[in-house]
Every structure is written in structure tokens, then in C-alpha cells.
Write a structure and sequence with these properties.
By secondary structure, the protein is α+β, with helices and mostly antiparallel strands. Helices cover 25% and strands 33% of the residues.
Length: 150
């Protein structure tokens, strides 16, 4: 079933490919750097948009043909994160991104999941008077953090 895009006064809900990749934490920056060389991952006035989860434990057992060789016990690897990002509904672009992930990921068998979904994109309304926007209330968290560390 296809989910249809729609709009409200402030938001456009657009159809995209949602891409989720499991990777050791030390791979994530390299993977995302290469993905962003293919597609900027723009969202409004921002680029390089992605989400990285807290690290978790990946479970697997190498079988015959695995680079590690067959093992009897299930391995439990700590420090594996999920990174997710959105791509325009463009199959050729998706293929390029998937191939690049394969090239720069450290695993023999990468876990990449893709599904189609709707995501919100603002229409760029003037929010200078909105009391809930951070720039009208608490300010930039990164600049505050830097000031505290100085």
C-alpha cells in the first residue's frame, strides 16, 4: 500500500526511502561521510541529517563461509549502533548509496534496511513569535555547552 504525501498549513509530508544501517560505532562516521558525498541528506536549512542510536549488542554466530570461520557459540558484539537517514524516492540514488555502504562498511554481511515512509518538512514559516522554538527561548544548546567548557 502506498502512503500518499499531503500538506498542512505548516508542514509537507513527503514520501522518502528510510535507510537504517547497523554498524560498529567506529564505522559510522566513515559510512556517513561517504553517503553525504553522494547525497547531502538535506532537510530544510540543514544537511548531513541522520540519527545514530546509542550503542547496543549485536548477536550472531559465524557459519561455514564466514570470514571469521564457523563457530559453535553465538557472538555478542558490544558497541554496535543503528544509523538512519532519509533519501528521495529515487531507486538509482538508493542503489548508489547501498553500494557505497557495502564498500566502506567493515562487515562481511551488512545489515541495511530500507522502507518507504512519510516524513515531515516544514514550509519555512516565520516562527519568530513562537514561544516553543529554541531560538526564542533557551538558545542554541551547542553554543551554551561551548561557553560552559571555556
Amino acid at each position: 500500500m502506498t502512503i500518499e504525501a499531503f500538506e498542512t498549513k505548516s508542514i509537507r509530508m513527503e514520501r522518502v526511502f528510510a535507510v537504517r544501517v547497523l554498524a560498529p560505532e567506529e564505522d559510522v562516521d566513515r559510512i556517513m561521510e561517504h553517503v553525504c558525498q553522494i547525497v547531502p541528506l538535506k532537510q530544510g536549512a540543514y544537511d548531513s541529517n541522520a540519527w545514530q542510536s546509542a550503542p547496543g549488542v549485536e548477536r550472531y554466530r559465524p557459519l561455514e563461509g564466514a570470514a571469521a570461520g564457523a563457530e559453535m557459540e553465538v557472538r555478542k558484539r558490544p558497541g554496535v549502533a543503528e544509523v538512519s537517514f532519509e533519501l528521495p524516492l529515487d531507486h538509482d540514488l538508493l542503489k548508489q548509496v547501498i553500494e557505497k555502504i557495502y564498500e566502506v562498511h567493515s562487515y562481511q554481511e551488512q545489515t541495511v534496511k530500507v522502507h518507504e515512509m512519510l516524513v515531515s518538512r516544514t514550509k519555512g514559516r516565520d516562527d519568530k513569535a513562537n514561544p516553543y522554538r529554541w531560538w526564542n527561548t533557551t538558545g542554541d544548546w551547542k553554543k551554551k555547552q561551548a561557553a560552559l567548557q571555556a
